[in-house]
Here is the input.
Amino acid sequence: MAKNYQKRSLLTFQKEFSTEEDCVRHLMSLRWPEGFVCPKCGNNAYWLISTRRLSTCTKCRYQTSITSGTIFHKTRTQLVKWYWLIYHMAVSKVGVSIAQVQRMLEIKDYKTAWLMAHKIRKAMADRDAQYSLAGLVEMDESFFGKAGSIRGRGSEHKVVVLCAISLYRDSKGMERPGFAHMAVVDDASAETVGKFLKRLGASSPTREDRRLINAIRTDGWRSYGTVAKQEGLEHCRIVLSSAKDAGRLLPFVHNIITNAKSVIRGTHRGVSSKHLQRYLNEVCYRFNRRYWEKELFDRLITACVSTDTITYNELAATRATRVS
Ligand SMILES: [Zn+2]
Here is the structure.
């Protein structure tokens, strides 16, 4: 895939992607970076039917869908609107609310706008799932929906979230946060923590036996100690004299958890617990690309054409409670 990333201001973006054809041609350039090839006969020439997102081979007349195998497959919404949403979700530091998306893109149906944003979040999550955590990992657990702020059914339950960030030293020897991941879990037991670490530190999804994490830094909660012992990890325990110390002593996980809570409470005005993981994925995706500002749109649109779509029914399958 072509990697000529470029920084775009809102005005540049607007000019570049102002028509349906602009977006279809751009999608084609991402899917066929060496130029279009007919899958049936290998011919390179085609007619483009932008309105139907199809290309027709000039030789054998075979029609190829430009959007199959991407999050845009079977969408009825104009690609121009999709591109705008992807741009905004890519460059925003705190995400966009569905009400804002509806207004901005003149989308009548709330469900349509909601589904579009979740399809983009799926692309973000699928991209991040390809990365592992390695070396020293700072980790902590947090409760979302604290102090009675969960609304709706099941509000007596708080949602447990595990957070892990790999750390590295820069050229000056300063400790820096690398890659982050957060997961909604049933509990913070040693078994759950162990599975979480195994999945994150595996050198690939099929090689959980090859572990890349060799040390953890935590507040010393017994689950972490048990896992460290079981897995033969070095364990650095930070003893907190009060909860306030967490920000100073485990700064990286503390920051991203605080950030996730404020995005959920602020931008989204609370989210459903069954979708919380998807919003956390978005927060991590953004955190993991914080140094690539000028590449944000290119990277996100590439993620969107590299993964299958998800349907409303697949998304709305289980019971919900609100988390804020
Ligand atoms: Zn052909």
